[in-house]
Amino acid sequence: MDRNKQGYFVISLDFELYWGIRDKKSVDEYGQNIKGVWSAVPRLLQMFEKYNLHATWAVVGAMLSKDKEDFQKYIPEIKPKYIDENLSPYGEFYKGLADIEDLYVYGNELVQKVIEYNGQEIGTHTFSHYYCLENKKDRGSFFSDLTSAIKISEDNGIKIKTIIFPRHQVNENYLKGIKKHDIYIYRGTEKIWYHSAARGQDEGIVKRAFRYVDYFIKIGSHHCQNIEEVKRGDIFQIRASRWLRPYNKKNKIFDFLKLNRIKNQMKYAAKNGKIFHLWFHPHDIGINQDENFKYLEIIFEYYLELKHKYNFESKNMYEISEIANGLK
Q1: Which residues form the signal peptide (predicted)?
Q2: How far apart are CA 214 and CA 199, in angstroms?
Q3: Most exposed of 21, 100, 165, 283 (fewest Cβ within 10 Å)?
Q4: Cα–Cα distance, 163 to 124 (Å, whole number)
């Protein structure tokens, strides 16, 4: 098979513990999902090893801290100035941080476990789960945050090449700047209007409705990417194809549609030499683990079928960038 026509299966994870949900839900509301991450991650790594799957784990830098004292060493010099102050972790949340059990916010041990497994790339999800479109003029605080993320990663023996912007708030104006920090790979949004990057308040009901339907039936496209589209000058964009919606008892009658949608996307990518990029959060599968891991097993077994039939290959985001960079 011509290398340019090779199909690829990419998996990325937004690894954030409570940092990524703290402005939306309380520990009481979402704590079981976060606690479940501590058992879900080892289980997921074993599954990746079983199926020889590579993945990129974009880690919120703050969760690399071992405790609050360690966290304080890395707090950015310039803090974000969001219009909605609740979005910042340095206000009321910070004041109450000492009252939150460590396992909800600090996960250095889990990240070290990921590093032990073959094919697992560690990227950054910014230091504080930074929202890049909430205040577009606040460039200084973003790069201060990124500097902290790089510093805590390096202090833990991690060299960052890949960034996944929290809530897919990709700010095109920041891309040249991240390259100066030797970060040159990012996850883009699906190439269709209802998946476009936007501030939280700009996510209207129509956009959300189209996106929801698209999880179950094809209304736009397969959301797969040509390898030739990955390299954009000296930056590499690997677009998302599908968020894996976690098990929900209320919607379980739609599970077969959800899985068929994913399998059809995978098959399209495998047959046509494109990239299918699946992503989710470890806390998505922190509860209802048996049901969620059943989904994953179905998807990964299907990957093996496609690998056997079409030579479909599993790669992490860094590996995809290397392939894209080597194209003639």
Answers
A1: none
A2: 20
A3: 100
A4: 5
| Nearest-angstrom CA–CA distance, 129 and 131 | 7
CA–CA distance, 106 with 116 (Å, rounded to integer):
19
Q: Are 163 and 124 in contact (CB under 8 A)?
A: yes
Is it true that domain 3-325 has CATH number 3.20.20.370? yes
Residue 161: what are its φ and ψ, rounded to 5°?
-120, -20
Dihedral angle at the C-alpha atoms of 257, 262, 263, 269, nearest 10 degrees? 150
Residue 37: CB atoms within 10 A of its CB come to 25
**Cβ 188 vs Cβ 237: under 8 Å:** yes
Model pLDDT for residues 160-198, shown as the tens digit of each residue:
999 999 999 999 999 989 999 999 999 999 765 445 555
Q: Please give the C-alpha separations between residue 178 and each of 56, 161, 171, 310, 318, in angstroms, as whole numbers.
A: 18, 10, 11, 36, 15
User: Helix 27-51 vs helix 108-115: angle between axes, to the nearest 10 degrees?
Assistant: 10
Q: What is the pLDDT of residues 111-145, one digit of tens each?
A: 999 999 999 999 999 999 999 999 766 899 999 99
Burial (CB count <10 Å: 0-12, 13-18, 19+), residue 156: middle
